[in-house]
Amino acid sequence: MSSTRAGRIRAALDAALAPVHLVLEDDSHKHAVPAGQGSHWNALIVSAAFEGRGAVARHRAVYAALAAELAAGLHALALTTLTPAEWEARGGGGPAATPPCHGGSAGP
Description:
Elements: H1 5-17, E1 21-26, E2 40-46, H2 55-65, H3 67-71, E3 76-82, H4 84-89
Parallel strand pairs: 2-3
Antiparallel strand pairs: 1-2
């Protein structure tokens, strides 16, 4: 198992959802957290496991897969959860960029 948060997130999602495409972006630098915190993530997950499931069920599956990371300091997830057909219909695009945080002392 990886010692980095990104590696642990990737391993947990691979095991639970077998994604055919996975993009993880650490967005922590956009928030008022110490450097290297790794607490805020943007994820695009393309998986056949999402077939027939609505957005809430898809997000619940992701949160269940990441329960250990959530208990260990993972604070926020911006999720794009797609089936392979949905991803293909979008042209294989990546996750939407998240805006900078306007709370705390995150800066401009």
